[in-house]
Every structure is written in structure tokens, then in C-alpha cells.
TrEMBL record:
<dbReference type="InterPro" id="IPR014995">
    <property type="entry name" value="DUF1844"/>
</dbReference>
<protein>
    <submittedName>
        <fullName>DUF1844 domain-containing protein</fullName>
    </submittedName>
</protein>
<dbReference type="Pfam" id="PF08899">
    <property type="entry name" value="DUF1844"/>
</dbReference>
């Protein structure tokens, strides 16, 4: 993509946009990390069947939820030393809640330590 007016899938700002580069440069790393974690949490919650509304069961997809929770666990564990206890604690709490929700939603239970993200966090049961 050599042109500055082309936008890769999933991105709001055109490639090479100086204003977008300046804007992102002003955002603290902890904010970027926590924002990414919140997006992963929200998506995982929906995929675990925790969405509000009549279609929550239709949106449930535990295979997708497992992937999202594992990615979230990796992000939280890897970034915790750098983002500080205040931020890491709330992310860990949300992660654990999702791991437990996944276990509750799953028809075939994973062995302790084998659930989504548990290779990073340890068993939640």
C-alpha cells in the first residue's frame, strides 16, 4: 500500500496519515493495552453467551471464546508488570470471571489448568 488514501481492513486511519500518527503517539501504552484488553473481554463475553438480549444464545461460540480468552490471558500476564497493579488487578478479575463463565457455559468441562488461558494464569477452579 503505497498510497496514503488506502486503509487496511480493520483500521480507521489511512496509512501514512501524519495526524493519526501524532494522535496515537499521545496515547499512553497503558491505555492502549487496557483498551485492547477491554475489547477482548467484550468479545469473549458475547461468545460465552453473556450478551444481553434474546439473541445471546445465538451469538454464543465457545470455540471463538476460548481463543479470545487465551489471547486476553497472554496480554494480561505479559503486560501486568509494566501497567501497574491498579490496572492489572481489574484486568485479572475480568479475565478470571470470563474463564469461570466459559467453564459454566461448556458442556464438556476442561480439566483443571486446561481451560482457556489457564496455561498463562493457572487453574481457576
Amino acid at each position: 500500500m503505497s498510497s496514503t488514501d488506502e486503509t487496511p481492513a480493520g483500521f480507521d486511519a489511512p496509512v501514512g496519515n501524519d495526524q493519526a500518527t501524532r494522535d496515537i503517539a499521545e496515547v499512553a501504552a497503558v491505555q492502549v493495552i487496557t483498551t485492547a484488553a477491554v475489547h477482548l473481554m467484550s468479545a469473549a463475553a458475547v461468545k460465552c453467551g453473556l450478551a444481553e438480549g434474546d439473541d445471546a444464545e445465538e451469538l454464543k461460540d465457545l470455540d471463538e471464546a476460548r481463543k479470545l480468552i487465551t489471547a486476553l490471558a497472554a496480554l494480561v500476564v505479559a503486560s501486568a508488570p509494566d501497567i501497574g497493579n491498579q490496572h492489572a488487578r481489574s484486568l485479572r478479575d475480568g479475565l478470571r470471571s470470563l474463564q469461570l463463565a466459559f467453564r459454566e457455559a461448556s458442556v464438556i468441562p476442561d480439566a483443571p489448568g486446561e481451560g482457556p488461558g489457564e496455561k498463562y494464569t493457572g487453574s481457576v477452579v
